[in-house]
Amino acid sequence: MTCTDASECLGRICRAADKAKAELDEAPLVLLVEDDKFEREIISAMLAQFHVACDLAPNGEEAMELVQARADLYKLLLVDLKLPGKKSGNDVLREADTLLSSDVHFVIITGDVNYLEPRKLPRRPVTIWRKPFELKDAARIAMMAEPLGVHHAIKGNG
Length: 158
Hints:
Elements: H1 6-21, E1 29-33, H2 37-48, E2 53-57, H3 60-70, E3 74-80, H4 89-99, E4 105-110, E5 126-130, H5 135-145, H6 147-156
Parallel strand pairs: 1-2, 1-3, 3-4, 4-5
Helix pairs in contact: 1-2, 3-4, 5-6
């Protein structure tokens, strides 16, 4: 996709995501924890193109409320390390590790790996998704949530 400016890119991504939203009722569910509203919208729209739905949390406290209320629904946890409030992304990952099934994948989204605190990371493996994002990265992340559904969506889109 070639765009001349950020708003044109967002518009294209959102239009493509709108086409996929009808199918999202039965899509795998991801918890996306990102404090930047623009990045939340971009990432959720990118994942929607691969038939993955997102619950959105702007901080660690809201993320943990969602984890506690909907733990059995999540297939993937996507967490920015730098978050406002009392809970960092590292804290969210460690706390969620005790509440979520072992088959839920954890992905750290960050532009700066210096915020990684190995002592605070969960025991399960984590994937690191480095900013800036590309659509091919979203496809890889979406495959973690529902490999067969994403494979079909990628083949179906040519």
